[in-house]
Amino acid sequence: MTVPRQSVAPQIDPEQAQREHYNRIAAAYEAHYDDPSSRLYRARFIEGPMLDGIDLAGRRVLEAMCVSGTSTAALLERKAKVTGLDISEACMEGFRRRWPDCEAVCASITDTGLPAASFDAAVVVGGLHHLQPNVEAGIDEIHRLLVPGGWLCFFEPHTGSLPDWFRRQWYKRDRRFARNEAAIDLESLKARYADRFDFVKEIYGGNLAFLLVYNSLVFWVPLRLKPLYTPALLRLEGWIGRLQGKRLACIVICQWRKK
Description:
Elements: H1 14-33, H2 36-51, E1 60-64, H3 72-77, E2 81-86, H4 89-98, E3 103-106, E4 119-125, H5 135-145, E5 146-156, H6 162-173, H7 186-193, E6 197-205, H8 208-214, H9 226-241, E7 251-258
Parallel strand pairs: 1-2, 1-4, 2-3, 4-5
Antiparallel strand pairs: 5-7, 6-7
Helix pairs in contact: 1-4, 2-8, 8-9
């Protein structure tokens, strides 16, 4: 008796999937995440608190998983020497076009090929949750790249929040997102890296403006509509943010310092 051969779905490498995904959406990502409305949101609610209190003047900063360099302007305003890194060729092409005076490296954050202790700070703007299940490999590589006392600054969606539950339901149904994307388990990461980093700052936030201004691409919001509601939602973001705790926040902003 012959047993029919069962077809086995090929295993897709998560990083390869993300690389292909961002090669496809690079232009749309830049249009939605670096339009004037998103820049206003990022400066006030992400880059400001994420970089606050850190002197970056003359410092070597790795903008990891940088796409086309949406936070490069904020780093350059702080007089940093910026190196952009992303696995997507299309994103790095955009980075080189926009920031010709910055170093650009097309590589995975889990294996950059860059020298150890070559950066004073590393900045990750919503990139770690794209690395699942290899988040720790990415942080290990960042730790290797930082000098002693160097900073890892990042913001990410976090597990254990009500917004993350809704986010997971949305991502199951919206095929524009790679299947490996998932919020980070911050408490588990802190337990793993307690002997290698000091945890200096941890801020929870993100509500209406985070969803509809900063993440307009996720919700298919036409770009022409964003300026109409952005001022009101930015005001609401600040008011609601004062009342938010960890369970109701969309994101966590962290500053870690290498021991």
